[in-house]
Amino acid sequence: xxxxxxxxxxxxxxxxxxxxxxxxxxxxxxxxxxxxxxxxxxxxxxxxxxxxxxxxxxxxxxxxxxxxxxxxxxxxxxxxxxxxxxxxxxxxxxxxxxxxxxxxxxxxxxxxxxxxxxxxxxxxxxxxxxxxxxxxxxxxxxxxxxxxxxxxxxxxxxxxxxxxxxxxxxxxx
Length: 173
Prior knowledge:
With 173 residues, the chain is α+β, with helices and mostly antiparallel strands. The protein has one domain: Hotdog Thioesterase (Thiol Ester Dehydrase, Chain A), CATH 3.10.129.10. It is 16% helix and 34% strand. It is built from 2 helices and 8 strands, in the order βββαββββαβ. The protein has helices at 64-80, 146-156, and strands spanning 14-17, 39-41, 44-50, 86-95, 104-114, 118-127, 133-143, 159-160. It has an 8-stranded antiparallel β-sheet with strand order 4-7-6-5-3-2-1-8, with helices on one face. It is globular. The termini are far apart.
């Protein structure tokens, strides 16, 4: 995916933006990263993209580690869509079909169960044209404690795409 890539179809849920950062999956400043445009709400997280040859393993097939990164990101953002942030504690992936570079794919993540601090999630990657399931995942995420959540929110200033950037004096510290 290049920085010019955009979703091929309208995706449900809000797209979010952080302060510029270097996350490999969603960071705008990482020139080698995926720069995923994520759409998240209480119902889950979705993104659509097409991987280019920088992200291939075997010829014309996306590298499995890249697919794991995409699945981890949409599952983590399904937790963010519930109003908290967390870290990956466990993740299991099943690769069902090869993901071809240059072909549009859609990734989806959902919270299957939530407790006080643990979230069990599911994710999948589909062919964007045929809806064929190409990979599935299950994950467990641990929610950040309240004080850490406040630090992350102040640092990254999560906001919907199109919303004005925060001025430094608007950030709660």
